[in-house]
Design a protein that fits this description.
Elements lengths: L1 H4 L2 H45 L18 H7 L3 H55 L14 H50 L6 H29 L6 E4 L1 H19 L2 E3 L15 E4 H17 L6 E9 L2 E8 L6 H4 L15 H5 L4 H11 L4 E4 L7 E8 L3
Parallel strand pairs: 2-4
Antiparallel strand pairs: 1-3, 4-5, 5-7, 6-7
C-alpha cells in the first residue's frame, strides 16, 4: 500500500482501472434490471400488432413447425415465423437495455473520473497559483503537502524553492544595507576631515592628510572586495586548472605573510616545515593556483587577525579519500557554535564591536574563499569549541586523476 501511495503513475493506472470496473458493473446491473422489462414490452407490442392484423399468435412459438416434409422441413432448419419474431423482440429488448446501461455507465464513469482527477488537479492548481504570487514578489507563499507520491514530493521541492527565494531576497536586502553601511563609514570619516579642514578646526598637517588617505584606501579596498565577490559568486571568471602541489603553494603563501606574523609575534607552524613538496607524500591536485592561493591568504590573514600576540597558527594537510584536506588552526578569540554557521556570510564578524579599521577586515574575505572552493568542487567549514578557545578552518580540494 505504501508503494502505491508513493507512485502517482500507479494511482493513475488504478484510477482508470476503477473507472472501467465501475462502468462495467453499472452496465451489468443495468442490463440485469432492465432486460426483462424491455423484452416483455417488445413481446407485448408484437403480440398486440399480430392480433390487430387478425392473426392468432400460437402459445408456443414455432409449435408444430417443421413436422411435415417440404416447406415445413425448410422452416424447421431455419427460423419459423414465430421464432423470427421472438428473436427480433429479444434483440430489441437487449438493445434497449444496453442503451440504458451505456448511458448510466457513462454518467457514473464521468463522476468517478472527476473525483479522481480532482485529487491531481487540485494540488497542481494550488502550485500554479502560488507560483504566480511568488512571481509577483510574495516569497512567503507555500503550498500544502499531503501524501508521499510524486505530487507531494513536487510540493515539497516547490516549498524548498520558495524558501530559498525568500532567503535570497532577504540576503539581497541585507547586502544593500550592509554595503550602504560599510561605504558610509569611510565616506563619513573623509567628509568629517574635509569639513574640519575647511572650518579650520583640524590643522592642515601631514597627519590629517594621512588619515584621509587611510580612509580613502579603506574605501578602495572595500570596493575592490565587493567587485571580487560579485565576480566569484556569479562565476564571471575562468579557472586556470592545472596540477599543483598544495605544500609548495602553502609555503609560497606563508612567505608572503611571514613579516606580518613576525611583527605581531604570532608563530606559524607549517606542515613539512619549509621543505619542498618532493619531501611529502601528498599527491598533486587540479586547481587554479592563483585562486587557491587567494583562499589560503584569506584564511591565514583571518587567523592572524583574531590571534593575540604570543599565539600560534598551525596549518596541517592530509589526504582523506579522493581529496586533500587543509586545516588552519589558531589560538585566537574562538567562535561560538551559532556563529560557525554564519561565519562565511557577507559582512559577518564574530566580534560585532570590532571596527573594520581596527583589523576586522572587510567582512567578505571568507565569503570569497567559500565561493572559490565551491567552484573547485571542494568544501569549506569552520569549527570551534567556543569563544576564547581558538578556531579551526578547513577546506578540501579534489585530487587530480
Amino acid at each position: 500500500m505504501k508503494f502505491i501511495q508513493k507512485r502517482i503513475s500507479l494511482k493513475l493506472f488504478l484510477s482508470y482501472f476503477v473507472v472501467l470496473i465501475v462502468g462495467a458493473a453499472v452496465l451489468l446491473f443495468t442490463v440485469m434490471f432492465t432486460a426483462q422489462g424491455a423484452y416483455s414490452r417488445h413481446m407485448e407490442m408484437n403480440t398486440t400488432g399480430i392480433i390487430n392484423n387478425g392473426t392468432r399468435v400460437p402459445e408456443m412459438m414455432g409449435m408444430g413447425q417443421g413436422r411435415g416434409t417440404g416447406s415445413g422441413t425448410g422452416q424447421g432448419a431455419g427460423l419459423g415465423p414465430g421464432q423470427g419474431d421472438g428473436y427480433i423482440n429479444f434483440r430489441a429488448g437487449v438493445l434497449e437495455s444496453l442503451g440504458y446501461a451505456i448511458i448510466a455507465a457513462i454518467l457514473v464513469a464521468v463522476m468517478v473520473s472527476i473525483i479522481f482527477s480532482q485529487q491531481i488537479i487540485a494540488p497542481l492548481r494550488a502550485m500554479m497559483s502560488a507560483s504566480q504570487r511568488i512571481a509577483d514578489g510574495r516569497y512567503d507563499e507555500r503550498v500544502a503537502v499531503s501524501g508521499t507520491d510524486e505530487l507531494a514530493q513536487l510540493a515539497e521541492r516547490f516549498n524548498r524553492m520558495a524558501e530559498r527565494l525568500e532567503h535570497t531576497e532577504s540576503m539581497r536586502r541585507q547586502l544593500i544595507g550592509d554595503v550602504s553601511h560599510e561605504l558610509r563609514t569611510p565616506l563619513t570619516a573623509i567628509g568629517g576631515y574635509m569639513e574640519g579642514l575647511t572650518d579650520g578646526v583640524l590643522p592642515a598637517s601631514a597627519e590629517t592628510f594621512e588619515q584621509v588617505k587611510m580612509e580613502s584606501k579603506r574605501l578602495s579596498r572595500l570596493v575592490d572586495d565587493l567587485q571580487e565577490l560579485s565576480r566569484v559568486e556569479s562565476g564571471a571568471y575562468r579557472l586556470n586548472i592545472q596540477p599543483v602541489s598544495l605544500v609548495d603553494l602553502l609555503n609560497t603563501t606563508a612567505r608572503r605573510l611571514s613579516f606580518q606574523f613576525t611583527e605581531k609575534h604570532v608563530l606559524l607552524h607549517l606542515p613539512y616545515g619549509s621543505s619542498e613538496s618532493t619531501h611529502s607524500d601528498l599527491p598533486k591536485v587540479m586547481v587554479d593556483e592563483d585562486r587557491i592561493t587567494q583562499v589560503m591568504t584569506n584564511l591565514l590573514a583571518n587567523a592572524l587577525i583574531y590571534t593575540q600576540p604570543g599565539g600560534d597558527v598551525t596549518v596541517s594537510m592530509e589526504q582523506s579519500g579522493n581529496e586533500i584536506q587543509i586545516s588552519f588552526t589558531d589560538t585566537g578569540v574562538g567562535i561560538s557554535p551559532e556563529n560557525c554557521e554564519h561565519i562565511f556570510d557577507r559582512f559577518y564578524r564574530v566580534d560585532k564591536s570590532r571596527s573594520r579599521a581596527g583589523g576586522g577586515g572587510s567582512g567578505i574575505g571568507l565569503t570569497i574563499a567559500r565561493a572559490i572552493v565551491d567552484a573547485h568542487g571542494g568544501r569549506i567549514w569552520a569549527q570551534s569549541d567556543g569563544e576564547g578557545l581558538g578556531s579551526k578552518f578547513i577546506f578540501t580540494v579534489p585530487i587530480s586523476k
